[in-house]
Amino acid sequence: MSEAQETIFTKIINREIPAEVLYEDELALAFKDINPQAPVHFLVIPKKIIPTINDIAEEDREIVGHLYRVAAKVAQDLGVAADGYRAVMNCNEHGGQTVYHIHLHVLGGKPMGWPPYTEKLKV
């Protein structure tokens, strides 16, 4: 995958297609997911095209860390930070990645338990 390959996210960054933007700065953009999987579901993307987690370079550390800071700020703004939320980034086909421009899914507004972890551990 070429680093310069355009995706739906580059079109959102360039305002070629609409999105409900929640946050924007020089490094990142956060917007509501068009197919939400939770009451609160937004994406945080870098403005730099990085196709997969495997393509994150040493010089991208600031950008990737910044994505998590943006996620925390927007989660706070949307009122889900105190109760908690899930932040996940998929990688490649088997990891469920469908857009080859890294993006952090942030989901909240309801318990996000996964059955093995929602049951009390028996020691």
Automatic annotation (TrEMBL):
Residues 8-117 form the HIT domain. It comes from Litoribrevibacter euphylliae. A motif (Histidine triad motif) lies at residues 101-105. Pfam families: HIT (PF01230). This is Histidine triad nucleotide-binding protein. InterPro entries: Histidine_triad_CS (IPR019808), Histidine_triad_HIT (IPR001310), HIT-like (IPR011146), HIT-like_sf (IPR036265).
